[in-house]
Automatic annotation (TrEMBL):
Residues 47-126 form the Macroglobulin domain. The lineage of its organism: Bacteria, Pseudomonadati, Bacteroidota, Cytophagia, Cytophagales. One of its GO terms (molecular function) is endopeptidase inhibitor activity. It comes from the Bacteria. This is Macroglobulin domain-containing protein. It holds the Pfam family MG2. Keywords: Signal. The keyword Acyltransferase does not apply. It comes from Dyadobacter helix. Residues 1-21 form the signal peptide.
Length: 840
């Protein structure tokens, strides 16, 4: 029933977002016809993924909710699989890849980050199984993440860029290792690579120092990086070294006349944008010149955007002069665009508006113009303007225009577009979140119970579906933050926007006014639009499907065989291959709990020589996407780097030491057992209690403990899933429907069958959602410190008809500021809200 409600919310929102009602009957013209053809040939599909935070440590989980907000190519129900891919920016290689079940445009789950994951900058790429004719996803979302370490290492690595500029085509990097015992006989190993190149072993001298000399011919990236890994005993440290750009230092200035052009004698408002050659926004001040005469002092803001006005004279040349500064090596002159002898000027009083749009048209008297209001997908209003004087003021009611970005385009008498300006409609339509019960401060291990309320601009309750996270404040990097409102309404159309130091971009109207001024004529070229035809509207999306094959001695089969596919000991299905060994597993049978795998074997007595593989088209897509991700820098090149910088700051009393080994009776006993995590079967130990998730998926789905360790064959453990009678008789396992009394019994672990039997093959399935369990009341008196940066995570929460949703959780043992973030979809708008509190 929950999914039925969810689907209704999606449809209601999609209808609101894609409204085609019109305040006036649109007149038939070639432009509108071409616009419809073009929009159908370029359908809009939007995906957003809400992650619980954007700074993680290895051995944590990325908790997420995914929302297909718009799907014009196919119905929402056609998106059945969500693929998540974690790519490391330093080498653009796939580090992790998982698939998750999606229903009616919604998916949720978690991606476990292993201990071996190097600290650094990553990109989480999400897409669904629907692809175009080139086998590329029709819908894609990217979230920048940072992985840090909270584990103290016995050694550290520091680097120094000895040459900050290219000297005779060479650059030198100094690597210094700090070892706990410099005289140790154990020799460290240092490797380095640039971009996607194969790692090279560096020479280390007696002082544990290495001087690496590289040729600038080895890299071609605009902003290259060197990845250094150092191994000492069983520990590895990583450092990413930004290298000097091959581009010269300087500032790039671009000018954007409102409407698209400067016109002789007509007042012009010009937006301008300033960035470094590394594409970083930078504030500057300059002087506007008319020929050789200064006429104004102009500047860009802290996010590198500004605006100024003047009346162009075609007989003169206009330029902006910027004096030498830290980034600009010398005084530089930037010239404004060419001035047209004749044309139209368009001025918006405000581009961020509510229900009405006011604008002014300047041009020659006697011209007849047509004004269109549209969003590149639908037309909403069309009317004629007769220029009976050189300046005309107009106001348009935006009742038919949906909330978000829209465009005003003016056509000349021949139906050609001559000026254009984008604006944001219905900015005041916002869903506000509040909570009367939430206090400003809480104690450690205190219960928080709050009711979140959602109301629209008319103070009416709002229904919808949301995901809620409560996370430590220092786990959010402003440079990596994305919210569903800003992404869907702005970034998805305008591309990457500069960071707003004042806070969230969507809430800063001044920031939006500047951005909308410099983002124009952006969606297409008029040549593409005017050549669109009905034949361009044919779209044939397809779906990626997972299949498999059975081989004998590495070669294709010559006759069909039967397969056993096992989810657990009680769920075994049998499938037949075709004569060539190819088989398909129905989608429902691919679904497994998060972290589990399918087990497959040929159904015959002699299984030796057979192997089973999955043909997973997602893997090839993932590799291609990793190669094409856009790497953006967050600052200028630094001369020095250290592995200490990968430690998470602000984790007072929360730093983890390496695993402690306690000697008892001359024998090593890890306090948790064997290696971290689970073994190939998914079995694990917490404390001295043994759990078998492949036997008891119910128990597995209700546990989330970072202290899992792999069990050892032959060791004695407490049986964590046995169901016993009061007398101690085994009567079953957790997962049965009958009532039972749980008692513990001692068992000897017999080992993992998948590790022993070479005829059983592991196949990756599609994960179903897993529930998050944080610190709860049962653990309140637990003496071990509870160092949870994510206190609460819940996806798929339905807001009731009173506009309310309840959430309850406990604080842990980390003090400081925490943030509650809510994101999702309402019946007629997007939902974003946040609240803060402090733990003392």
């Amino acid at each position: 029933m929950r999914y039925i409600s969810v689907y209704i919310f999606l449809i209601l929102f999609a209808n609101s977002f894609d409204s085609t009602a019109q305040s006036k009957q649109l007149e038939d013209n070639v432009f509108l016809e071409k616009l419809r053809f073009y929009s159908k040939n370029s359908p809009s599909n939007l995906l957003f993924v809400h992650t619980d935070k954007n700074i993680y440590t290895n051995n944590e989980n990325i908790w997420f909710s995914a929302y297909v907000v718009r799907s014009e190519s196919v119905d929402f129900s056609k998106h059945t699989i969500l693929s998540l891919v974690l790519v490391r920016e330093a080498n653009q290689k796939v580090q992790l890849q998982d698939k998750f079940a999606m229903e009616n445009g919604l998916a949720s789950g978690n991606m476990a980050l292993p201990d071996s994951l190097p600290p650094g900058n990553y990109q989480l790429i999400a897409y669904t199984d629907v692809v175009d004719k080139n086998q590329l996803p029709i819908i894609l979302f990217v979230q920048k993440l940072t992985i840090k370490s909270i584990t103290e290492s016995p050694f550290s690595v520091s680097t120094m860029l000895l040459d900050t500029v290219d000297i005779d085509g060479k650059l030198r990097v100094k690597v210094q290792l700090e070892l706990p015992d410099p005289k140790s006989r154990v020799k460290p190993v240092v490797e380095y690579s640039i971009g996607k190149a194969t790692p090279v072993v560096a020479k280390i001298d007696g002082n544990n120092t290495s001087i690496i000399t590289i040729s600038t011919d080895e890299f071609s990236e605009q902003q290259p990086t060197m990845l250094i890994s150092a191994r000492y005993n069983d520990d590895i440290q990583y450092v990413t070294v930004p290298l000097p750009s091959k581009l010269s230092k300087g500032i790039v200035a671009k000018f954007y006349p409102e409407g698209g052009h400067l016109v002789d004698g007509l007042t012009a408002t010009v937006g301008w944008e300033t960035k470094t050659t590394q594409n970083l926004s930078v504030p500057i001040q300059g002087i506007l010149f008319k020929d050789n005469t200064p006429i104004d002092t102009i500047s860009t803001t802290s996010y590198g955007v500004g605006a100024f006005s003047f009346v162009p004279d075609r007989k003169c040349r206009y330029s902006v002069q910027v004096e030498q500064n830290k980034i600009l090596p010398k005084d530089t002159v930037y010239y404004l665009p060419e001035i047209l002898p004749d044309g139209i000027a368009l001025h918006l009083k405000q581009a961020v508006v509510n229900d009405t749009l006011s604008f002014q048209i300047e041009g020659q008297v006697g011209k007849n113009l047509q004004v269109l209001i549209h969003d590149y997908r639908e037309g909403y209003a069309s009317f004629l303007v007769a220029m009976q004087k050189s300046r005309v003021d107009k106001t348009v009611v935006l009742a038919a225009v949906p909330k978000g970005l829209a465009t005003i385009t003016i056509l000349d008498e021949e139906g050609r577009p001559v000026v254009e300006r984008i604006f944001f409609a219905h900015y005041d339509r916002r869903i506000e979140m509040s909570s009367e019960e939430l206090k400003k401060t809480y104690l450690k291990r205190e219960k928080i119970s709050t009711k979140l309320q959602f109301k629209d601009q008319s103070n009416q309750p709002v229904q919808g579906i949301v995901s809620i996270a409560c996370v430590q404040e220092n786990r959010f990097d402003p440079a990596n933050e994305q919210d569903i409102e800003s992404y869907i309404f702005l970034n998805s159309s305008l591309g990457t926007l500069p960071l707003d130091p004042a806070g969230r971009r969507f809430e800063n109207k001044s920031f939006l006014e500047h951005i909308l001024l410099i983002k124009g004529w952006r969606k297409y070229t008029w040549q593409d639009l005017l050549t669109s035809s009905p034949g361009d509207t044919a779209q044939t999306p397809s779906s990626l499907t997972v299949s498999g094959k059975v081989l004998y001695l590495g070669k294709p089969l010559k006759k069909a065989v039967d397969l056993n596919i096992m989810k657990d000991v009680k769920d075994v299905s049998v499938y037949s291959t075709n004569p060539g060994g190819i088989f398909e597993i129905p989608y429902p049978d691919l679904l497994v709990p998060s972290g589990k795998a399918l087990r497959a074997s040929v159904n015959m007595q002699n299984k030796d020589g057979y192997s089973i593989e999955l043909e997973d088209p997602f893997w090839e897509v993932n590799k291609n996407l990793a190669k094409t991700i856009l790497i953006t820098t967050s600052g200028l090149t630094s001369a020095g780097q250290s592995s200490r910088e990968s430690m998470l700051k602000g984790m007072e009393h929360a730093t983890q030491l390496k695993e402690v080994i306690v000697r008892v009776g001359g024998r090593n006993n890890s306090i948790y057992g064997g290696k971290r995590g689970t073994n190939a079967c998914g079995d694990y130990v917490i404390g001295n209690v043994l759990y078998y998730p492949h036997i008891s998926p119910l128990y597995y789905s209700t546990k989330d403990d970072p202290n899992r360790r792999q069990p050892k064959k032959g060791e004695l453990y407490q049986d964590g899933i046995a169901k016993l009678s009061m007398s101690g008789e085994l009567i079953g396992y957790i997962g049965d429907n009958s009532e039972w009394e749980w008692k513990s019994r001692k068992v000897v672990y017999s080992g993992c069958m998948a590790e022993q039997d070479k005829t059983i093959f592991k196949l990756n399935g599609i994960y179903t959602a897993r529930e998050f369990y944080g610190f709860d009341e049962q653990l309140k008196d637990f003496t071990d410190p509870q160092l949870l940066s994510t206190l609460y995570w819940k996806s798929g929460l339905v807001i009731n008809d009173q506009g309310e949703v309840d959430c309850s959780f406990f604080t842990g043992d980390i003090t400081g500021k925490f943030r509650i973030v809510v994101q999702g979809i309402g019946s007629n708008d997007l939902i974003y809200g946040q609240q803060e509190f402090e733990v003392k």
